[in-house]
Write a structure and sequence with these properties.
single chain; alpha/beta; Rossmann fold; four-stranded parallel β-sheet; 4 strands; 45% helix; binds iron/sulfur cluster
């Protein structure tokens, strides 16, 4: 019991640190990119949320922001970059095109990046206002702190499964 409490408190502490230290990989494909730049500029000051450092190598990033339309041809590249992100990792679909394909109802556009990779937070808007983006980051921070990110949940499930197998002596 004592060990369980200590472990869960340690996890809370680690998650608290994670929520204030996102390293963003911006996967920018279209016009929403202007809004991404605006959020990073001093007026909106994303640094207040500890997410101000974009990284252009997925191996140095844990938060992927998919900003703009993704075409079917870009799909494999998106998946490859996602696979290379450091664990635990999170994904934000930035704008309606990344979230749903937007108004591109045609055969070239992916109708939402969740057809290819798991998404933690969707930010609506065409383009979203910077305030919406900050709102999305705060929502993600809440999920991370509570351990409810998609990959955090998967890791916990895998840990429980390993524990169960050990108990069964498999
Ligand atoms: S959501 Fe609007 S602004 Fe953003 S990439 Fe699509 S068309 Fe451009």
């Amino acid at each position: 019991m004592g060990l369980e409490v200590t472990t869960s408190k340690l996890e809370d502490l680690v998650n608290w640190g994670r929520k204030f230290s996102f390293f963003t990989y911006p996967f920018i494909t279209a016009c929403c990119g202007m809004e991404f730049m605006s959020v990073a500029a001093p007026k909106y000051d994303i640094a207040r949320f500890g997410a101000e450092f974009p990284r252009f190598s997925p191996r140095q990033s844990d938060l992927m922001m998919v900003v703009g339309t993704v075409t079917e041809k870009q799909g494999p590249a998106l998946k490859r970059v996602y696979d290379q992100l450091a664990e635990p990792k999170w994904v934000i679909a930035f704008g309606v095109c990344a979230s749903t394909g937007g108004f591109y109802q045609n055969y070239t556009a992916v109708p939402g990046i969740d057809q290819i990779i798991p998404v933690d937070v969707y930010i609506p808007g065409c383009p979203p206002r910077p305030e919406q983006v900050l709102d999305g980051i705060m929502l993600l921070q809440k999920k991370v702190a509570e351990g409810r990110g998609i990959n955090q949940l998967r890791a916990r499930r895998e840990k429980l499964e390993r524990h169960r197998l050990e108990q069964e002596g498999a």
